[in-house]
Structures are given as C-alpha cells and as structure tokens.
UniProtKB/TrEMBL annotation:
Predominant localisation class: other
CDD domains recorded: crotonase-like
Highest rank taxon of the organism: Bacteria
Origin organism lineage: Bacteria, Pseudomonadati, Pseudomonadota, Alphaproteobacteria, Hyphomicrobiales
Protein name: Enoyl-CoA hydratase
The keyword DNA damage belongs to this UniProt entry's keyword annotation: no
Matching Pfam families: ECH_1
UniProt entry keywords in alphabetical sequence: Isomerase, Peroxisome
Subcellular location as annotated: Peroxisome
InterPro entries the record matches: ClpP/crotonase-like_dom_sf, ECH/Chromodomain_protein, Enoyl-CoA_hydra/iso
GO molecular function: delta(3)-delta(2)-enoyl-CoA isomerase activity
Isomerase recorded as keyword: yes
Length: 256
C-alpha cells in the first residue's frame, strides 16, 4: 500500500517517511515503487534540494517484507522489481541524501545507508545485514561499498554471520556521521538537512558526482541482483523462509 510511504516537501527538504510501524516498516514492492518514484522525480524538481529518509515508530525498518521473499522462494511469485528501481535511484541520486535511523535497520535498511551522504543514528540504533542467514547475498552494491567503508574483516562478519552493529560501533567504523539521544534524532537530522538546503545546490551536485560513480554502483547492483535472484529460488532459501514462518532455527545441513 503506497500510503505506507509519506512524502512531504518543505523548505527545500523532501522527506520520505517509512510509515508501516505495525509491520516494523518492512518494505513491500509498493513501498519501493513509491520511494523510487519520489527519488527519481526529485532529479527534475529544483524545489527538492535535499532528501531526508526516516522511519515512523520505534524501528527504522525491518528490511524487505519477508512474506514477499517467501512467496518467491516457494515459486508463488516472480518477486519485486521496484526494489531494483529503488536501489538504483539511490545510486544515481545527485541530491544530498540524509537518513535518520532509530531502532533496528535490517538488510536493505542498512545497505541503503551506504548511499546516504549524512547518516544520523539514535543511540538505540542497531544495523544488521543478515543476507547469508536467509540463504541470500548482499545487495544495493553493499558487497562493494561495505568493505570499502569498514574493511573486509568487519564487512564479512556482518554479511556472513549477520552480526548486529550497535550505534556506537557504527559511528566508529564510519557508517554514520552522528549518534544522538533518541529524543534528539529528528531535530539533528532536520538541522543537517536544512544546512545542506542552504548550500549552493550546483556545487553540492558536482561534489557528489566527483565522489561517487553512480553507474559503477549500478553495475555492481546488477551483478548482485543476478546472484540474489538465483539464491532466492534455492532449497536453502526455502528452508530459511519456512523456518522463519515456523519460528524455528533453519537447518541448512540437511539441504542438498
């Protein structure tokens, strides 16, 4: 349902709010589509000088809606294509991206932060990328960006073991710009977005283009996407999602 993403444009700041708190802001195909539409449209809207991404409730996002993954693994769905549009829109976005993150940021909830230019974490934030635990592979060019940002050893542990990274460590490792008390999160992120909105837009765009090669990131996303789609249809993935639905630990040792 597209009402699960709220869009507001005030004072040069386009705010995208994940508004599905009853489902931990888990992202559906429709939500990805609305997010992608907003980010792509901002490229042609001079009033959208900065994009701020936030989540409603006590969690930024639980990541992709597991039910949609499970349907693909069971052969009942072809899967979402809007997620591809969304992550590619992040890679190609020339506007400054600011994220305000509270509680858990799981999977794409963490990998999208690698495309944000300023990331503010609440002190209760926890980042995790449990792709391998779901018999999948990293996405959103995170297989390239995460080792570059935090080093191979830390990135491998996050991916292969699904280790959760608390806010303090995320800041120390370079995954965030600020860690603030939860009750200060919105104000801090908004203040940074407002400062960016007052900067010369052309200079910001040119600087970001010099610092990031969007098309190289899209190429990495495409390579990841091929592996991701293949893995999603494996026996390992079916076991992972069946175990999730049955609230039990998966047993991959019995999967051929």
């Amino acid at each position: 349902m597209t009402e699960h993403v709220r869009i507001e444009n005030n004072g040069g700041i386009l705010t995208l709010t994940l508004a599905r708190p009853d489902k931990k802001n888990a992202l559906t195909d429709a939500m990805y589509g609305k997010l992608a539409d907003a980010i792509e449209s901002a490229e042609f809207d001079p009033s959208a000088r900065v994009i701020l991404i936030r989540g409603e409730g006590d969690m930024f996002t639980a990541g992709n809606d597991v039910g949609e993954f499970a349907a693909v693994a069971a052969g009942k769905s072809e899967g979402s294509r809007n997620v591809v549009r969304f992550i590619q829109s992040l890679a190609r976005c020339t506007r400054p991206l600011v994220a305000a993150v509270q509680g858990r940021a799981v999977g794409v909830g963490t990998t999208m932060l690698l495309h944000c230019d300023l990331v503010v974490l609440a002190d209760d934030a926890q980042l995790s990328t449990p792709f391998v635990s779901l018999a999948l592979v990293p996405e959103a060019a995170s297989s390239l960006l995460m080792p570059a940002r935090i080093g191979y050893a830390r990135a491998y542990e996050m991916f292969a073991l699904g280790e959760t990274v608390p806010a303090k460590s995320a800041l120390e490792w370079g995954l965030a710009n600020r860690v603030v008390p939860l009750d200060k999160l919105e104000a801090e992120a908004l203040a940074l977005a407002q400062r960016l909105a007052r900067q010369p837009a052309g200079a910001l765009i040119a600087t970001k283009r010099l610092m990031r090669n969007g098309e190289a990131l899209v190429a990495q996303m495409q390579a990841e996407g091929e592996q991701f789609a293949q893995r999603l249809r494996t026996a390992e993935a079916r076991e992972a999602f069946t175990a999730f639905a049955e609230r039990r630990p998966p047993d991959f040792t019995k999967v051929a």
